[in-house]
Write a structure and sequence with these properties.
This protein is of the alpha/beta class and 355 residues long. It contains 14 helices and twelve strands. The strands form two sheets. Strands 1, 2, 3, 4, 5 and 6 form a six-stranded mixed sheet that branches. The radius of gyration is 20 Å and the shape is globular.
């Protein structure tokens, strides 16, 4: 590595306000992982491990940096005593086996609890259970293994309440009855969100890249869309619940809706182009890290050994008021809702750091 490359890594960390980056490597097992620790002022860094066949190390680094930063903001806004971190394992998820995962868990042990992991894209409950065999620094375990179980339940609940709060702030009424809502990605969170919305009488439009997942939702009150038709309708709410980057410089021109509120992490890409465009189109964006906090609230309770589902759901229900706070701060300061949420999250972190 050249002198310039080393320097640029520290510039990069500085620019993204990161405390630590840890590269983990086991040549024999083909294990390559990066742990990103963004900020630990409020508590140990928490965030899931994702496995992805990244096209380059740089792509993996960008992903872990952005995701771990969002985790700090998420935990801060949710009022948790937890910092932000995330890990990515680089490679085809099919190479995983118990030995591979337990070797990864040894790397987590080296961090002595500065970073706690949980499940993320392409990591299964079995992987999480296997990590637990080697490391105590893992949360999001199935109930039969001493955890609080599927975190997508509180996540979907928080997104649902975030939608209601957004609507309340825009129209003075929080009813989602008859509202046209596009759910993009009907996986664990998107599927449960649909249940809440159907109960309230919303009109659901659904799309998923996986036809089998979509087929399960082929029932009354749900209109199944083809990919090319997603943005042909106007919606009251567009809810990205698949992967990140759904609201980007290309899609923002096509999206016609009043509110964007979804579960997917890091929905906005090309921030400099997208945020002004949303303003111009009068689309209210509810930041993902504000409303998808149900999952981190759940795994945080595991980390502090308080296995009380009711407490998790009660704390998740605060998302309704927190959305109101962010919208108020945004309009008072004439900044985007995204910037308002980041500022409020940073304010809490900075307050603790100053002590
Ligand atoms: P999941 O894997 O169960 O569901 C994702 C769904 O999106 C799948 O059905 C997949 O086929 C679909 N999908 C993938 N790419 C797509 C595309 N381009 N267009 C349409 N559909 C596509 O994941 P999940 O647990 O439901 O999580 C959904 C999102 O919410 C993810 O971004 C995740 O990081 C985020 N999130 C989840 C939780 C949680 O508790 N599960 C918490 C916070 C945030």
């Amino acid at each position: 590595m050249s002198k310039d490359q080393t320097k640029s890594i520290f510039n990069y960390l500085n620019e993204h306000e990161h405390e630590q980056l840890i590269y983990c490597h086991d040549k024999e097992l083909g294990l390559k992982a990066i742990v990103g620790i963004h900020n630990t002022a409020l508590g140990p860094a928490m965030g899931g491990t994702r496995m992805w066949n990244y096209t380059s190390d740089e792509e993996a680094l960008n992903d872990v940096i952005n995701l771990s930063m969002a985790m700090s903001y998420k935990s801060s806004l949710a009022g948790l005593n937890a910092g932000g971190g995330k890990a990515v394992i680089i490679g085809d998820p099919r190479i995983k086996n118990e030995k591979f995962i337990r070797r990864y868990a040894e790397f987590l042990n080296d961090l002595k609890g500065k970073y706690w992991t949980a499940q993320d894209v392409n990591m299964t409950s079995e992987d999480i259970v296997n990590i637990k065999k080697t490391s105590r620094y893992v949360v999001g375990l199935p109930k039969e293994h001493g955890g609080l179980g599927d975190s997508s339940v509180p996540t979907a609940y928080g997104v649902y309440l975030g939608m209601k709060s957004a609507l309340m702030n825009v129209t003075g009424k929080d009813s989602l009855s008859d509202k046209k809502i596009l759910i993009q990605g009907v996986g664990k969170v998107g599927g449960k969100l649909i249940d809440y919305l159907l109960e309230e009488g919303s009109k659901i439009y659904a799309y998923d890249i996986n036809k089998n997942n979509l087929e399960k939702f082929n029932r009354s009150n749900i209109i199944i869309l083809k990919e090319e038709d997603i943005f042909k309708n106007r919606y009251d709410i567009y809810s990205p619940c698949a992967l990140g980057g759904a609201v980007n410089k290309d899609s923002v021109d096509q999206i016609e809706c009043d509110i964007i509120a979804g579960a997917a992490n890091n929905q906005i890409s090309d921030e400099d182009i997208v945020l002004p465009k949303l303003k111009e189109k009068n689309i209210l964006y509810i930041p993902d890290f504000l409303i998808n906090a149900g999952g981190i609230i759940s795994v945080y309770h595991e980390q502090i050994n308080d296995l009380d589902t009711k407490k998790v759901m009660d704390m998740t229900s605060d998302i309704f008021d927190k959305v109101t706070d962010v919208l108020k701060f945004s309009s008072e300061n004439n900044i985007s809702t995204f910037q308002a949420a980041v500022q409020l999250a940073k304010d809490r972190i900075n307050k603790v750091s100053e002590k």
